[in-house]
Each structure stands twice: as structure tokens, then as C-alpha cells.
Amino acid sequence: MKKCLWLCCVILLCVAGPACAAGPIKIGALFAVTGPAAFLGEPEKNTLELLVKEVNAKGGIKGSKIELVSYDTGGDVTKAVQLANKLIKNDRVVAIIGPSTTGETMAVIPIAEKEQVPLISCAAGIKITEPVKRWVFKTPANDHVAAEKILIQAQKRKQKNIALLTVSDSFGASGREQLKQMAGKRGFKIVADEVYSPKDNDMTPQLYKIKAAKPDAIICWGTNPGPALITRNAQQLGLKIPVYQSHGVASKKFIELAGAEASEGTTLPAGKLAVHHLLKKTDPQAKLLREYADAYKKAYGVEASTFGGYAYDGFQLVAGALKKGATTPAQIRDGIEKNGKMVGISGVFTITQADHNGLDLSAFEMVRIQKGDWALLP
């Protein structure tokens, strides 16, 4: 009888009291840690591992430790689809952070929607969240925001005739579409519209055509290594035409690949992390950016990148829902949508039912490369 009573008490304590710790919460991650997009996936994976380690060291979230299940997609669409299915059906994760690229994300979206598991993408393509998909969110600002920042700067400099040079992948196609739509509305004339393949190793043919069109400026849209190669090719051809790059190269890796001399004067929209040391102390992101940059440098011995910040924000969106009591995929989805204002690495988020990105023009600073480093533009 006494043994039975003791057993009943233990069961009651485990069910109702804090004596028994809750089970781990499984969060999935899909990042291109290897392959051409490794410059995106590596800092994303590093950042997520760092955050999970910090959270678990403090006891987890509401008594539950976070178990990270992370896979390397290699930037391959087919592999991303296979691994997304594995995360949901085998690993039973409650949310997925990633993938790193727009192409992978677009391929994984139907799975997240069908299986009803929140997907928080680290890719920038506007079609990821527009139109709104119930189970899909993303942390980089939409590419139309970056395009608008570039065109506003070009207007200030009275550059009316524009040449486009965009990569032929999902990210490039989306950027090209946004640029063409917005350029027409703002009174720009597109005098050249060239495309290059992610595998191209010489863009001088496209640059020769652009040179013949005599534009006031070139807008290049892509992710490394292509834009860095274009920058070097332009220098080799002696082109003196001002060049804008997209936010897809907003890390020191671009300067390293292109070379400080070739990239001098290149202008682009960058997340505030890249220039956090130049921000005013009153900026709402300044403190968080400094703390993240310091923690990443201490943990990995290299500078934090804007791309790692995408994973940081993705985790914080999920963690915010968990802290409010969410435990199931559906509760996490609802929690992200009702999170209110959140200061993140990529900007100040206001995600709503009608906007699953929640960032505006304030997410970017226009910067120019000067002497191998960033300089803020007024």
C-alpha cells in the first residue's frame, strides 16, 4: 500500500510539478554549409548552434532544452526537399529555420504548407512570402526593399539610364523583376538588360554590351562569387561606370573576393550589422548588433556576417513563440504571427497576418566600399 502511494506521488509530481524537466523541443535547420552558397550557410549554422548553446546553458525555454537538428543542403534544391521531409517525418521537428537560398526555399515551401510546419526562410526572394503563405516566414528584407534603396540613391545622383546585370537563378530573377517594375515607375530608363549564369567564370561579353549602351550606372544582382568576378572584369576592362551591388553580397567576403582596388566605390544596401560600429547609439538595433558581433567573433574567431543574422532572427521568432507557451507547430506559427514588434539583427520586425516578413526600408543602410571597408552614405 505504501509503495503504491509513493508511486502515485511521483507520477503526480512529474505531471504537475517542476521536479520533472520537460522533454526537448526539436527545431530543424536547413543550411547550405558546403557548395557555392557556403558563405551563406556556414555563418547561419554557426549562429544557430551558438544561440541554442546559450539558451540551453540557461536552462532552455520554459524548462525545455532545445534540440537542434541541422542538415547541410549543399545549396541543392533536390537535397533540400529530401531533408525537409526528413526533418518533418523522421525527426519530428516543430519548426524549420532555412533554407539559405531562394531556389531551395521555393522548393521546400509546398512541403511546409502540406505538413503544416512553420518554415522561417533565410533567403531574400520576395515570392517566398508574397503572396502570404500560412506556414512560411522569412527574415531577410524583401528584395524589393533593397531595389528601392538602390534606386533612391541613383535618383539622388541623377543616374537615369540604368544597366542591369542579374544572375539567372531564383534570387536574380526576382531582383530583376523588382528592379524593372520599380525603375519604370520612378522614371529610369533601362538601356541594357544582361543576365549571367551562376557557373559563368567570365562576364566580359555582358560588360562589353553594357559599355556600348552607355549607362549612367550598372546594377548587379546576385550572390558571390559572380558579383565579385564581375567587379574584377569591370576593372580589367577599364570601365568607369558606377556600380551598385545587391544586398546579396553584403559581407566582407565580397571585398575579399573582388579585391579592395577593384571594389573601391561600389555601392550597395547592407544590413546594419555590417556597419554596426558606425551607427548612432540611439539606433534601436545598435546594442543587439554589437553584442551579436562580439559573441560571434569570440566563438568562431571571425567577423559575424549579415547572413548569420538571418538565422539569429529566425531562431528568435521561434523562441518568442515558445516563451509565450507555444509547443506545437500550429501554436508556434500563431505565436510568430502575433509576436508584435521585435528588434532583430536584420531590422525591427513587425510580422502580421498580412506580412510574413515585417521589414521596411529601415532594414538597410546604403554603404560604399572605401579602402577595403564600408562607409555609410548620407
Automatic annotation (TrEMBL):
Q: Fetch the InterPro entries from UniProt.
A: BCAA_transport, Leu-bd, Leu_Ile_Val-bd, Peripla_BP_I
Q: What is this protein called?
A: Branched-chain amino acid ABC transporter substrate-binding protein
Keyword terms? Amino-acid transport, Signal, Transport
What's a Pfam family this protein contains? Peripla_BP_6
Signal sequence, start to end: 1-21
The biological process GO terms on file are:
amino acid transport
Q: Which gene encodes it?
A: livK-2
Upper classification of the source organism reads: Bacteria, Pseudomonadati, Thermodesulfobacteriota, Desulfuromonadia, Geobacterales
Q: Which organism is it from?
A: Geomonas silvestris
- Annotated ranges, domain Leucine-binding protein: 24-358
- Similarity section: Belongs to the leucine-binding protein family.
Coiled coil start-end? none
Classification via Gene3D superfamilies: 3.40.50.2300
